[in-house]
Amino acid sequence: MGEFKLGRMTLRSLFSKPATEAYPVEPRQYFPQTKGHVTIEIDKCRFDGSCAMLCPTEALEVDRAEMTWAINRFRCIQCRNCVNVCVENALTMENTYAPSASEKHVDVFALSEESRAARKAAEAEKRARAQRMKEEAMAKKKAAAAAKAAGPAAAGAGETPKEAGTTDAAQEGAE
Length: 175
Description:
Layout: H1 2-14, E1 37-40, H2 50-54, E2 60-63, E3 68-71, H3 81-85, E4 91-94, E5 107-110, H4 113-155, H5 161-164, H6 168-174
Antiparallel strand pairs: 1-4, 2-3, 3-5
């Protein structure tokens, strides 16, 4: 009786699809939420270091002065903390695994010279705009103070009672 069960199972497996994948021939399809490895779009990064501060294994290192971002992939545990805290969405978690390595190393990403120059120009423009707005606000304050100082002197020289500070009720009672 056992031989019939074995024969039936063997015949069934001969005419059905294989239970496993042909891995080298067909690459594996990963699930969307697979925790693979962290990647960065360096041009989007603000280099504020919030990702490095939140990393529990201290695998990230951000240098704002040099505009570099480094990751030690052997220390990274793919927890997604850095990806979740990144305001500019410069960090993403790829759903493929990092390539294997035979020795420990740190991947360093630096901002290109063109991007550095563009950022410095944008920062200079931003500072100039802020300075202009500050100067305009000071000019408005000076004009308002001058108008206020000229107001009481002009009150006796022909201003209406409303402009001199009397209320509408006082004007109506005077009429």
